[in-house]
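Students often ask what a 'structure token' actually looks like in practice. Rather than answer in the abstract, let us consider Quinone oxidoreductase, a protein of 323 residues. Its sequence is given first.
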Amino acid sequence: MVKAIQVHTTGGPEVMAFEDIEVGQPGPGQALVRHTAIGVNFIDTYFRSGQYKTALPLIPGNEAAGVIEAIGDGVTEVAVGDRVAYLDGPGTYAEQRIVKADKLIPLPAGINDEIAAAIMLKGLTAQYLLRRTFKVSAEHTVLFHAAAGGVGLIFGQWAKHLRATVIGTAGSAEKVELALTHGYDHVINYREEDFVARAVELNHGSKLDVVYDSVGKDTFPGSLDVLKPLGMFVTFGQSSGPIPPFDIGILNAKGSLFMTRPSLWAYNPDRETLLAAAAELFELIAGGIITVDIHQRFDLKDARAAHEALESRQTTGATILMP
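Now compare that with the structural description of the same chain:
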């Protein structure tokens, strides 16, 4: 038996229980991973609360790093003793887990387990947002909400590496300062300033090429008002609640805007694509272009406290659980 966080009925952080589970042995095409670090992300709260539907009981979590302890028949992607990280959820808030071997990403020597657990979802999200959803380059000015969050801090550094002009938003003076040290040219405190007017002012009176928004209800439709004609609104989360239903004609009225709701899994549908995206991310981290800040560490048994901190917007950078 090993320990895991289980959810038997959806609700607030208090529904998470630290319990014994039986893991078993890997079958064909599978590997048994002993977790050494587990990433915590806002999407985990959507599954726990029931906002995203899944079967119960539920083990939350979507990313982790660890060591291969056993492999099933036919596994060629990894071997016993390999250090790996992966995205596959929910199900990572546990000491051990059986995972399909083709989902496991071998870790290079320059990436430690804690960093790996903190970047699978956040770093690969930044990768597809910047490199594929909207291919950012030096000619673009972009706005990123929640700039001091886990994705935001990676995004800012990567976007600046691509020579874009990068504007962020954050909710406190401390978060503003943190984001400014991670690639952002400007960061707007949305509690003190109208981010729409200020972003346009910072861009010399011109509207922006693209807005990346994981906040949702509180920033819509202001995010649309920042965009120039034919600009793109990328909504990839809803930490303040879902965007309410709206007349799609608003996109026409505001300048024939593009709008997309991407997901990491759709952008990485196969192992080849996933490994290529991870390799690009690992190279930038190993080269010092991107630094990853793990600002919160909780024991696995204290996952409730981790979710409470996340949902009250008390966190910055990455949060991990330690088994």
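One point worth highlighting: The chain has two domains: 2-120+266-322, 138-261. Ask yourself how you might have guessed this from the sequence alone, and why that guess would often be unreliable.
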